[in-house]
Write a structure and sequence with these properties.
Blueprint: E1 10-15, H1 22-35, E2 39-42, H2 47-50, H3 60-71, E3 75-79, H4 87-92, H5 119-136, E4 142-146, H6 161-175, H7 178-184, H8 212-240, E5 246-247, E6 249-250, H9 261-265, E7 272-274, H10 284-298, E8 304-308, H11 327-337, E9 340-345, H12 371-385, E10 398-401, H13 404-410, H14 422-435, E11 440-443, E12 454-457, H15 465-476, E13 480-484, H16 506-509, E14 511-516, E15 525-526, E16 532-534, E17 538-542, E18 546-550, E19 560-567, E20 570-575, E21 578-579, H17 583-593, E22 606-611, E23 614-619, E24 625-634, E25 640-647, E26 652-656
Parallel strand pairs: 1-2, 1-9, 2-3, 3-4, 4-5, 6-7, 7-8, 8-9, 10-11, 10-12, 12-13, 13-20
Antiparallel strand pairs: 14-17, 15-16, 16-21, 18-19, 19-20, 22-23, 23-26, 24-25, 24-26
Helix pairs in contact: 5-8, 10-14, 11-12
Bound molecules: beta-D-galactopyranose.
Length: 659
């Protein structure tokens, strides 16, 4: 359920009027009109102002602002301020302060300073949200509720006494009997057998590795506690204001490791995502595209909201680079191309004080005489031209398997190599596909994947039997699957599937692994034909699979490195190493096999995405790019094209393909 208003693409950002005097707020209203801002998120960190003392609610200051915005045609995503509990509350309930894994209780002075499991926090949350909802339900400016802020970041897991109590309840509900828990956790190892629920602690810091099954369950439990805190608020708001969508903004789909967004998605009316560039990474627009594609996938293909990104520099990276001219526009339109129906920023006006005073805003410290403000105003105009894009969908032929549980499990202690990283493999495959101009969806391994021409599993270390069967069925009925190394190794309790690796995928891939041979830090091996590879080598015993490429050097010289197994009507491919420069070529073979077409001769500085009837052409490079076979009308200048078009360096062209 996407908010009905504003019409077209929503444009605006987080707005913190509480930081500014009245004259500035009046100027803000005029500037919002100038830029065409039509949606702001309000109230996010203002609990201390909304409830200055326990049970005394004060919304007068906010009424004035909401009314002024409404009078200026700006809709409001009204936030609940629970990510910033006030000092008086923390003083009265010091037990809400979260405890870290190494038993440090954090202090007041930052944000996210309350544990989602703490009863006092839940009670105060419910009271405040009810008061807020009762006060603002029916207000014509309020088009959606924006709960909390970025659950899971930075507070993923809490180790306080309330968390431990809730954890024991969670374990009871999950396992019912202590022996079942012992079995699931492999508790005979290192003599960890429990006899009573009360013996079980959180998996705190330890001088050695802690039971991995216990840690994995704690990650599931902790994420669930945040979801329960969200659902508590959502249910109150839904009850008070039926029909008004409720959401919470994710801390960056690709970056927020602690939140299992497949589970979160079921709880939200509309998916809202935040994304910040890694400023120093040269191709950071690829990370942006990945974040946007994952947001769309989590939304089940429906349009989603870009809830935060930055107009210029952020303030929390080691070196906070300003965006180059045109970069903000490219970023914003790339999110829209990949399914977002909003372009929102953190924040409308750059703050003068506090921890984020060096963070950019739509209105920078340099004011409206700046290039940045001019770009913001231009972007607002562009987005008005793109109103027809709203609601349209992106179709992908290729899917990447992404499972947060596998992410958690893979990166626990004591794996065969520290170079086994979930994001590293995911990024490598995503980047190769991006450079091939292939739009991808992300899928959970148990999801319905039957519609995809190719499914790629770059890092599926944890794979349940049910998920493995799902992949098996997909291939048998004609699908093309590509699996990368160290996949299908353990089940949901981090227990190795019986027999030789990869237990869950042996039959599907038509092979087994006799021995892992992780490589040294900078060691490379070669594949036949001379292509170098890093990180991983292993001894494969084919059992139906044929070698497409072999290792030419290293511990597995002469043995298969890239294999192919015909199964039923489909094919399962397996890649046993991390090719340095040739991943695109190997992947290309798989795409060709499945007849996934790609534009030939288009440089990989040009991002090309189709959304509904619109084709987005984004030139990230320093040279003009000619794109062949474009038929339609260029949205920003009304020029009709039928044949090759040239996209100038750093610019974006959007072509409407229907008359
Ligand atoms: C986000 C957060 C915002 C702001 C922003 C700065 O993670 O939700 O409140 O802090 O980062 O980049």
């Amino acid at each position: 359920m996407y908010p009905e208003r504003p019409a077209g693409i929503a444009f605006g950002g987080d707005y913190y009027p509480e930081q500014w005097p009245r004259e500035v707020l009046e100027e803000d209203a005029a500037l919002m009109r100038e830029a065409g801002v039509n949606l702001v998120s309000l109230g996010m960190f203002s609990w201390a102002l909304m409830e200055p003392a326990e049970g005394r609610y004060a919304f007068g200051w906010l009424d004035e602002i909401v009314d002024r915005l409404h009078a200026n045609g700006v809709a409001v995503a009204l936030a609940t301020p629970t990510a910033a509990p006030p000092a008086w509350f923390v003083r009265a309930h010091p037990d809400v302060l979260p405890v870290t894994r190494d038993r440090q209780r954090i202090g007041f002075g930052g944000r996210q300073s309350a544990c989602s499991s703490a009863p006092a926090f839940r009670e105060a949350t419910a009271r405040l949200v009810r008061a807020l909802g009762e006060h603002y339900r029916g207000h014509p400016a309020v088009v959606m509720w924006h709960v909390h802020n970025e659950y899971g970041a930075p507070l993923g897991e809490c180790y306080c006494e309330h968390s431990v109590a809730a954890w024991r309840e969670w374990l009871r509900t999950t396992y019912r009997e202590v022996p079942a828990l012992n079995e699931a956790w492999g508790a005979t190892f290192w003599g960890q057998t429990y006899t009573d629920w009360a013996e079980i602690d959180a998996p705190r810091f330890n001088h050695t590795a802690v039971n991995p099954a216990q840690r994995l369950d704690y990650a599931r439990f902790s994420d669930g506690e945040h979801r329960a805190h969200y659902a508590l608020q959502r249910d109150i708001l839904r009850d008070l204001a039926p029909g008004i969508p409720v959401t919470t903004n994710f801390a960056g789909t690709v970056n927020c490791k602690s939140t299992d967004l497949w589970r979160w998605a079921r709880e939200l009316d509309v998916i809202a995502n935040d994304h910040y560039l890694k400023a120093e990474r040269p191709d950071n627009h690829i990370d942006l595209a990945m974040s946007a594609d994952l947001a769309r996938s989590v939304a089940g293909g429906a349009p989603w909201m870009l809830m935060e990104h930055s107009a210029g520099a952020v303030n929390w990276q080691p070196r906070n680079l300003a965006k180059r001219p045109g970069e903000m526009r490219r970023n914003s339109l790339a999110h829209v191309a990949r399914g977002s129906d909003s372009v929102l920023f953190f924040q409308f006006r750059a703050s003068r004080f506090g921890a984020e005073k060096f963070h950019s805003g739509m209105v920078p410290h340099a004011g409206t005489g700046s290039e940045q403000w001019r770009e913001v105003v231009r972007l607002g105009a562009d987005l008005r031209e793109l109103a027809a894009v709203r609601g349209s969908r992106v179709r992908a032929e290729v899917a990447l398997v992404w499972d947060w549980e596998s992410y958690w499990a893979l990166e626990l202690d004591w794996r065969p190599s520290v170079d086994l990283e979930f994001r590293e493999r995911m990024d490598a495959f995503y980047e190769a596909l991006w450079r091939e101009h292939v739009t991808v969806d992300f899928v959970h391994p148990s999801a319905d994947i039957s519609g995809y021409a190719v499914v790629v599993a770059p890092s599926s270390y944890l794979l349940t039997e049910a998920a493995a069967k799902n992949l098996h069925r997909y291939v048998e009925s004609g699908g093309t699957l590509l699996v990368s190394y160290f996949s299908g190794i353990v089940d949901e309790h981090d227990t190795i599937h019986p027999g030789a690796h990869p237990g869950a995928l042996r039959e599907l891939l038509g092979l087994s692994i006799e021995e892992f041979h992780p490589l040294r830090e900078h060691e490379t091996v070669e594949l036949d034909g001379g292509a170098p590879a890093r990180v991983w080598s292993e001894r494969i015993r084919p059992a139906g699979a044929v070698a497409v490429r072999r290792f030419a050097t290293g511990p597995d010289a002469g043995h298969p490195a890239f294999t192919r197994h015909e199964l039923g009507a489909g094919t399962a491919w397996y890649l046993a190493t991390a090719p340095s420069g040739s991943l695109r070529e190997l992947l290309g073979q798989v795409l060709d096999h499945a007849r996934v077409s790609r534009p030939r001769g288009l440089p990989d500085t040009l991002e090309r995405v189709r959304r509904g009837d619109h084709v987005f052409l984004i030139n990230h490079g320093d040279d003009p790019v000619t794109v062949e076979g474009v038929t339609g009308t260029s949205v920003f200048d009304g020029v009709r094209h039928d044949g090759p078009v040239t996209v100038a360096p750093g610019t974006v062209m959007v072509v409407a393909t229907t008359p």
